[in-house]
Request: fold
Amino acid sequence: MKKVIYPLLSLALLPLFSTAQETKITADDLFAKARKVAFDSKDYPQAIRLSKQALLQAPDYTDISIFLGRLYTWSDKIDSARTLFNELDLKDTKDEDFFLAYAALEYWNDRAEKASQLTDKGLGFHPQSQDLLLLKAKINYSANHYEVAENAVHQLLKIDPKNAEARSLAKNIEEYTAKNAIGLTYNFVYFDKQFDNNWHIVGLSYKRATPIGSVIFRTNYANKFAENGVQFEMEAYPRLSKLFYLYVGAAYSNNVGIFAKYRTGVSLYANLPHSFEGEIGYRQLYFSDNIWMYTASVGKYYQNFWFNLRTYLTPGEKNISQSYTGTVRYYTKGANDYFGFSAGTGLSPEENRNNLLDNAQYKLKTFKVGAEYNFSVKQSNLFSISGTYYNQEFRPKEKGNQLDIILGYIRKF
Reply:
């Protein structure tokens, strides 16, 4: 009888055992649930509990340990995160994500030297890691180690020229890498109707990088309206934080009409998330009276491209004059190698034509389109050429054409 009952009982209970095995929650299941809770609900305490439960089943599951360390970091449990990452380090963990998580913890908690050591160690195992190279650049940029940051970001751009975040960072780093730079520009301006004589403007500049930002001194010589004039300029780009920096500019000339007597300007720039950047500021020109202009712009890096839209608003007695310019750049290599295209309306105070803003007879209804090409040779020699075509109503119902050509060279040392 027993020989019959036991087999029958086993057959009856077999589905129950099978169901229990099928419904058993594995470490992978708990890990997946922890990630979902963390990313979808931001419920880090629950994600920590699930990760710990998973590690009880699989103590050597490195990915879960790294994720738990990240959860501690995001929960501001710095000591717990550091202890866990140190244990993984003692186990000679070589995972790329481990070095990213541990270095990010130290970077966010103002231990740049330790963070940099971790990225270097991680790159020893993963030399092509874009994430580690980007983090290394950020760490050293924040610690004012600009040459190390520049090398890391340039190495990253060689691997992936379409990395928008790296390209945005490269532009910021560039302001601090070369201690000195000398620049020379020549601007030729042709008019078909508006003026009898072409214009010639030559600029000589010296740029000095300082711990708080770069300073530029510039002297401009111009021949306009068959007369000569000189202008002296100074610009500074002080860094306020990792997010914000300023533009501060001033200029003086004793040759009013060829140049404004005084020019000032201030802008606040912000390096925004997702490779966006923004600006808001003012420009002021003084000939015989003040002209005040207010400017705003927004830019975006996307793969090899940089998009920018800028406006200048000039309040008047009856209305507000408006200028809009859209610019697109396509980067071929580093921060100084690109093709650019622009189109817009109105006059800009940044242009060498800004003395036209003071002449009331001009309606200044302007359409413009331009192109530029910048390239570097051995990173120390920067060359540029640009051309802009203007179609401007300079008298009622009468338009003239103008062509600007600018050649430039900068030597960094």
User: Anything to note?
Assistant: The CA atoms of residues 55 and 116 lie 29 Å apart. The chain is about 35% helix and 40% strand. The two ends are 99 Å apart (CA to CA).
